[in-house]
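Researcher: I'm preparing a figure for a lab meeting and need a structural model of a single chain. I don't have an experimental structure, so a prediction will have to do for now. The sequence is pasted below. Please return the structure as tokens so I can convert it later.
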Amino acid sequence: HPTMFRLTQLAVTARRSLSTAAPAQAAINHVTVLGAGLMGSGIAQVAATSNHAVKLVDVSKDVLDAGVNRIQKSLERVAKKKFEDPADATNFVESVMGNISTDTDAVKVVGEGTDLVVEAIKEDLPLKKKVFASLDEVASESTIFASNTSSLSIGKIAEATKRTDRFGGLHFFNPVPVMKLVEVVRIADTSDATYNALAEFGQAVGKHVVTCKDTPGFIVNRLLVPYLLEAARMVQRGDATIEDIDAAMRLGAGHPMGPITLLDYVGLDTTSFITHGWAEEYPEEPLFQPVKAIDDLVNDGKFGVKAGAGFYSYKE
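Model: Understood. Here is the structure written out token by token.
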């Protein structure tokens, strides 16, 4: 319908003028990734693959070496599938690895200049605040800060800095090179320019970007964690066996993996840590209440797949 078309055109024009009215944030070319563990090395890999200059930083030289080694092996697997000619595969790996350099001194690196800092260190609020406070002192005015936390409040981390308008969440999923999603988290102070720069970075590294406010767990974990906890409560009450709960959700709901198996893969220690943190923060929320069945296994050192036992046993 012509009128409808005209209204659509007007809306598009209005949107364009609104977006150009926001202060322009320079494109992100140089990225500093803090933490060279599984998440940090994965973020460094996708940023380097999309031609960003990447500085991977960790206080431990051993963790850095392991992270770089992990990236190299991952890229070799990608190259093997992507290129028939071994020379092309080698060139691809060398070219991406050439975009990555490492350091153990975050303050020095950020002080020298970077467009974006993505923090992927331990889930420890005081530690994250301390790191960002020290970087805030030396970072350029235009540098954007982002945390890859999966369970802590972005706003609480940002409080440690004087750049809450240039702060947001960039929550990637493990393994980062494979998982197609990134959650971009806006706090009340995040400027449009910062949000746009973070969303564009997410798209540039090949991810589907979803946006969320600074709510516990953002979108994925806010829905996933209570579901996993309820499955564990069913086990605790003796409602059904772990095998039947998993089979029911695989075959009845089309889930690729049942909730009890997923708990073991995520790590019962990780789930327990997240739950206790949320329960402390939101004591009135029944969905966030810790589950004794999980805590008992954690106390026995049964963290799931990585420990060889959780709800299930993984020992040969």
